[in-house]
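Request:
You are asked to prepare a plain-text protein record giving the amino acid sequence and the backbone structure tokens, at your earliest convenience.
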Amino acid sequence: MKKPKKSEDCRLTGGTWRSYYDDKTVTDARRLDIDHVVPLAEAWDAGASKWTTDRREQYTNDLTAPRSLVAVSSGPNRAKGDKDPAE
């Protein structure tokens, strides 16, 4: 994929992304959502409700795991909602 350029007003232009859910190539960043592969609601039900606020924040913003937060085309992401990966 091609890295975008960031303008002075922080807009991204010129990049391409591969949507994780439907394998589409997206060239307009406005057509992307950033999604948690394991939804926050699923994490909450699986025990995150007992985590400290700091640990929940770390999970929510984790950029180290390759599939923690993914760029996806907005349609499939919004249809997925808060379903877990198995669904």
Summary: The two ends are 28 Å apart (CA to CA). The longest strand covers residues 32-36. The mean pLDDT is 88. Strands lie at 5-6, 12-13, 17-18, 25-26, 32-36, 69-73.
